[in-house]
Amino acid sequence: MTKPTKMTELEAVNVLLTTIGEAPVNTLTGNQVTDVTIARQVLNEVSREVQSQGWFFNTENGVVLTPDNNKNILPPADTARIDSRDFNIVVREDKLFDLDKFTYEFGGSIKVNIVYYQDFTVLPDSAKRYIAARAARIYADRLLNSETIHAMTSKDERQALVDLRQFEEETADYTMMDNISVSRITNRGFRRRIL
Q1: Which residues contact 34 (CB under 8 A, 6 or more apart)?
Q2: Rounded Cα distance, 104 and 147, in Å
Q3: What are the pLDDT digits (tens) for 96-144?
Q4: SS3 state at 191
Q5: What is the DSSP annotation of 11-77?
Q6: pLDDT tens across 140-154, in order?
Q7: How far is residue 77's CA from residue 128's CA, in Å, rounded to a whole number?
Q8: What 3-state class would DSSP assign to 172?
């Protein structure tokens, strides 16, 4: 038996193909049949969806962004989500927009938390497995619409999500204060004093 290695994008695409009964492929380069192209598109779509939720492996806190000569702050191109504790910001027209001051202009650098899109190859294996399982279910639903395959792939998807959440829990070094429910309780008295 061969020693297992990290899942590749080719292996993930082959998971999608075999789910609908298609033969696996040896490469993703060159001209591909429609099923391979669609499988790869679904895999990328699901990868973006899952990563945009923000996991410890693709989130960086306290990133300093500096305004350009026009006082605009341009977030990195691979930004899935961005937030700041000090500013009420959103991304508009590929620039940060201050919702409180109604402006694109910032007087200086700001600290933000960024959720980045990562290339499939650098994701942790538990994330790759979940993305592949979820993509396989969506791919099969779109192409075949089979209740039997849907039930089978849904079970695989649920288990892969459990594994990913367990991986996140064990490796992210969260504390009790990182939990949103705990944060709401501890900040409740503060909110009442403000109101």
Answers
A1: none
A2: 49
A3: 999 999 999 999 999 999 999 999 999 999 999 999 999 999 999 999 9
A4: helix
A5: HHHHHHHHHTTPPP-S-SSSS--HHHHHHHHHHHHHHHHHHTT--GGGEEEEEEE---TTSB-PPPT
A6: 999 998 999 999 999
A7: 22
A8: coil
Show the tokens assigned to 14.
């082959």
What are 21-61's pLDDT values in tens digits?
999 999 998 777 889 999 999 999 999 999 999 999 999 99
SS3 93: coil
Count other C-beta atoms under 10 Å from residue 173's C-beta.
8
* Structure confidence at residue 181 (pLDDT): 53
**Which structure tokens are listed for 85?**
């504790």
Output the pTM of the full model: 0.84
Which stretch of DSSP H or E encloses residue 96?
strand 95-98
Extract the tokens encoding 120.
């499939």
